Automatic annotation (TrEMBL):
Keywords: Hydrolase. This is Cysteine hydrolase. Residues 11-161 form the Isochorismatase-like domain. It comes from the Bacteria. It holds the Pfam family Isochorismatase. One of its GO terms (molecular function) is hydrolase activity. The lineage of its organism: Bacteria, Pseudomonadati, Pseudomonadota, Alphaproteobacteria, Hyphomicrobiales. SUPFAM superfamilies: Isochorismatase-like hydrolases (SSF52499). CDD domains: nicotinamidase_related. InterPro entries: Isochorismatase-like_dom, Isochorismatase-like_hydrls, Isochorismatase-like_sf.
């Protein structure tokens, strides 16, 4: 039975699920890679079962790079992803999956209006791809337990992986994406329920009320 006209025309975009994130030179810390990669695989299986197209993205870097080096084990797709069916494959060299690739054209050609982002990292390639997608007119859903972050320390300060992941997901939910767990997303596919979206204003008002309480 065809989906109602109000239902999103989705594609699942699986971003950079590569071995360097699995205990390699850029090991995901929060949520842990071993937990989140299982959810990426679950999302891929659920998408395939629901007739949702799957796009797999791979980050490419020069052979001398410490991460994602062309031809290296760390740069290869993780076996959980590499062995699953996909409808389109994209190699990229910058954070956004849209920059310098055919992703937008492929999505338009397949009449996709909503991308569902899973993969790594929450605060870098996911964030860049999501903001880019919104600016091009796509709606976005983000699977927060099918992604993860690493800690950073630089001249601007320090942030733990947990802090980075938590703050970015809150920011995304305020404007750029519907943020939900993989199980919640799969339930939306089964029931036709649309995931919750929010606004900058409403998010700010709740924070002010919370602070005043």
């Amino acid at each position: 039975m065809p989906a109602p006209a109000t239902q999103p025309r989705r594609a699942l975009v699986v971003v950079d699920v590569q071995n360097d994130y699995d205990g390699g030179n850029l090991a995901i810390q929060h949520p842990p890679f071993a937990e989140t990669v299982v959810n990426v695989a679950r999302a891929m299986d659920a998408a395939a079962a629901a007739g949702i197209k799957v796009v797999v993205i791979k980050q490419m870097a020069p052979e001398t790079s410490p991460i994602f080096a062309r031809g290296s084990h760390g740069g290869e797709l993780h076996t959980e992803i590499a062995g699953r069916p996909r409808d389109h494959y994209v190699e990229k060299t910058l954070p956004s999956a849209f920059t310098g690739t055919d992703l937008e054209a492929w999505l338009r050609a397949n009449a996709i209006d909503t991308i569902v982002v899973a993969g790594y990292m929450t605060h870098n390639c996911d964030l860049s791809s999501i903001i880019h997608a919104v600016h091009m007119g796509f709606a976005v859903e983000f699977l927060s337990d099918a992604s993860g972050s690493v800690p950073y320390a630089n001249s601007a300060g320090y942030a733990s992986a947990e802090d980075i992941h938590r703050v970015v997901t809150i920011i995304l939910q305020s404007r750029f994406a519907a943020v939900l767990k993989t199980a919640e997303w799969i339930d939306c596919l089964k029931t036709g329920k649309l995931p919750e979206r929010d606004t900058i204003y409403a998010s700010n008002q709740r924070a002010l009320q919370r602070n005043a309480a």
